[in-house]
Design brief:
Elements: H1 10-25, H2 29-39, H3 44-51, H4 55-62, H5 71-87, H6 91-97, E1 107-118, H7 119-125, E2 128-132, E3 140-148, H8 149-155, E4 172-176, H9 182-190, E5 197-201, H10 211-220, E6 224-227, H11 232-242
Parallel strand pairs: 3-4, 4-5, 5-6
Antiparallel strand pairs: 1-3, 2-6
Helix pairs in contact: 1-2, 1-5, 3-4, 9-10
């Protein structure tokens, strides 16, 4: 990582996502924040100073006296852990990134759009049929992630799910190798951060998609789309062409 430019390597980004994911999913996020501060061997004062906050604020979070940290505070927290350790030689980063899971067989493609596209643009790109959330056609989309559904089930745990969101949650999560479409919807339903839309690839017609999956997507108010692209490579190619 080059701390002067604020750029991070893939392993460091994965570690940051892992830490943030643990905090988000915990019923006592302050306990998890304290755990990671101690794992990085940092005092409250040093960490708070780097974050630009009073130590008492960090102390309140760690004692769960405040509500769960928001996205901006959480990013500032994990960035501070990484940046401070990097300036000290990065010993803890090296240790923890060595433990970071390789999800290259799960995340087949991921991209951020330089400018917003709409749900409708994504639907057209994937030769999609909208199964739920038809009223959200004009909602902005800022990226996509193509996920191998079977490998996701085999390899991912709850804390890994945040890595599917890249740098923002206003994106299309595209699940390929789907049989009925229930598992992706259930995973999204129980996770606190929601994508802009969900695309599934596998079923060849709407009738093959699980009715409960469609109903849950309607409940969550998430556009739910069946892609009829012939195969996964052509699906990924069409998504890439959106921002070229």
């Amino acid at each position: 990582m080059d701390s002067s430019t604020g750029s991070y390597g893939a392993a460091e980004e994965a570690l940051m996502n892992r830490i943030a994911g643990e905090i988000i999913l915990s019923k006592t996020p302050g306990d998890v924040m304290k755990k990671w501060r101690l794992l990085f061997e940092l005092g409250q004062s040093e960490l708070a100073r780097h974050m630009g906050i009073a130590p008492s604020v960090l102390n309140d979070y760690e004692k769960n006296r405040r509500k769960s940290p928001g996205t901006l505070f959480l990013r500032k927290f994990v960035m501070a852990l990484i940046e401070i350790d990097s300036k000290k030689g990065g010993a803890h980063i090296k240790k923890f990134t060595a433990m970071t899971k390789d999800l290259s067989n799960v995340i087949l493609d991921i991209a951020e759009f330089p400018e917003a596209r709409s749900v409708k643009d994504i639907v057209e790109a994937v030769d999609g049929i909208v199964l739920a959330g038809k009223g959200g056609q004009n909602l902005p989309v800022y990226g996509y992630t193509v996920v191998d559904s079977l490998n996701a089930i085999k390899l991912m745990d709850a804390t890994d799910f945040l890595r599917l969101f890249g740098t923002n949650s206003m994106r299309a999560l595209v699940f390929v190798g789907v049989s009925k479409g229930r598992s992706p919807i259930i995973a999204v339903k129980i996770y606190p951060i929601k994508p802009r839309m969900i695309v599934i690839h596998g079923p060849t017609k709407p009738e093959d998609v699980d009715e409960l999956a469609v109903a849950l997507a309607e409940q969550e108010a998430i556009p739910f789309v069946l892609s009829l692209k012939q195969d996964v490579p052509s699906l990924i190619s069409s998504l890439r062409n959106i921002y070229r």
